[in-house]
């Protein structure tokens, strides 16, 4: 696995809403790449950027500067048009912007003690949500759901999340997920499921949003680790796969579908009569790990491109999962993981390139088995 010993120039990275593109913000400006072939699609040396968020494959970007240039304050959100190379609209705030999310209807701006919801087309403010200290700008947004679900931390002392329907907007529910404060959250494509991890990082849980109930609980590991990124597969209904990366440098796959997890119905029944701390131990993990996917303690950003049925070399039915990983040391990696119904798995590093060099080199590695 290639790695760079030079200091990281990457400040932020993100995938667009369908994972077809990924963007990186650097000390010099921004770059946008095609996830499928590594082609550099757009580059602009605007100066240091803390946030770069795309709106699907349109020309609209939401960007926030580092403050090194007077016009690029960390308190100013710029809606930037890549075709005209001009700002469409600037929004100024009293404190630094920590996160931005958007879809075709809504624009969400997260500050340390409040979150603003805007109508994207008119940039009219629809809701101002007061929050507790959210110093990391933690949030989850479901851009492909009609309700435009938004999740924010409910507490700094325990792992609870408040879920809002920003299409209205209104508060839907509170999900009490972990004992320790939240470190990562992500919605499934349609917003029906919310995955969470705490600062401890040993458990990853999946919740049914409409009922504010836990549907799955997975043990990532025994020792604490910081969860850097969570991502569901793009399935319309119940996602097949949830993936996670952490400070340990490993990639974790958790399978959720009923076909692979025949005991899920039994555990649903058990969870109605047994306390959650016990069902955590009984809930089948269906957990696979690839070790040393990225260097330890290097922040990473995940996307699941696809999950498909396929035939492996032994002619057994298998799931083929394609995962994209962008790391803060300047690398893009595409992994293909095959998993049979007998729970045997193997992985292939399909592509790897250093996007700071804007060069693509496809690498084919021998197939390897994973835990």
UniProtKB/TrEMBL annotation:
GO terms for cellular component: phagophore assembly site membrane. Gene3D superfamilies: YVTN repeat-like/Quinoprotein amine dehydrogenase. The keyword Repeat applies. InterPro entries: PROPPIN, WD40/YVTN_repeat-like_dom_sf, WD40_repeat_dom_sf, WD40_rpt. Its main location: membrane. It is found in: Preautophagosomal structure membrane. Keywords: Repeat, WD repeat. It is a peripheral membrane protein. It comes from the Eukaryota. Belongs to the WD repeat PROPPIN family. This is Autophagy-related protein 18b.
């Amino acid at each position: 696995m290639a790695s760079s010993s030079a200091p990281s120039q990457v400040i932020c990275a993100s995938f667009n809403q369908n994972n077809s593109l990924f963007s990186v913000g650097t000390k010099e400006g921004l770059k946008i790449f095609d996830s499928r072939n590594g082609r550099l699609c757009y580059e602009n040396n605007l100066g240091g950027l803390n946030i770069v968020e795309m709106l699907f494959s349109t020309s609209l970007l939401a960007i926030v500067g580092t403050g090194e240039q007077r016009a690029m304050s960390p308190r100013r959100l710029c809606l930037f048009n890549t075709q005209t190379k001009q700002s469409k609209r600037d929004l100024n705030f009293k404190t630094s912007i920590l996160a931005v999310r958007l879809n075709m209807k809504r624009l969400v701006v997260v500050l340390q003690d409040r979150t603003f919801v805007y109508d994207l087309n008119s940039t009219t403010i629809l809701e101002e949500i007061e929050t507790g200290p959210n110093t990391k700008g933690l949030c989850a947004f479901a851009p492909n759901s009609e309700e435009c679900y938004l999740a924010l931390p409910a507490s700094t002392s325990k792992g609870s999340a408040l879920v809002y329907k920003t299409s209205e907007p209104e508060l839907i529910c509170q999900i009490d997920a972990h004992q320790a404060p939240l470190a990562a959250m992500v919605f499934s494509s349609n917003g029906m499921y919310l995955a969470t991890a705490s600062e401890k990082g040993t458990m990853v849980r999946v919740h049914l949003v409409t009922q504010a109930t836990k549907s799955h609980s997975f043990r990532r590991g025994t020792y604490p680790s910081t969860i850097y990124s969570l991502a569901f597969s793009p399935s319309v209904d119940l996602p097949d796969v949830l993936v996670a990366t952490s400070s340990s440098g490993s990639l974790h796959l958790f399978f959720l579908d009923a076909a692979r997890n025949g005991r899920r119905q039994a555990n649903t029944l058990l969870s109605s009569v047994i306390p959650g701390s016990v069902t955590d131990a009984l809930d089948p993990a269906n957990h696979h790990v690839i070790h040393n996917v990225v260097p330890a303690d290097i922040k990473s950003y995940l996307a699941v491109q696809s999950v498909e049925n396929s035939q492996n070399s032994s002619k057994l039915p298998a799931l083929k999962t394609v995962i994209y990983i962008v790391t803060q040391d300047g690398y893009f990696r595409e992994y293909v993981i095959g998993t049979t119904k007998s729970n045997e798995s193997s992985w292939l590093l399909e592509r790897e390139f250093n996007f700071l060099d804007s060069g693509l080199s496809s690498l084919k590695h021998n197939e390897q088995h994973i835990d």
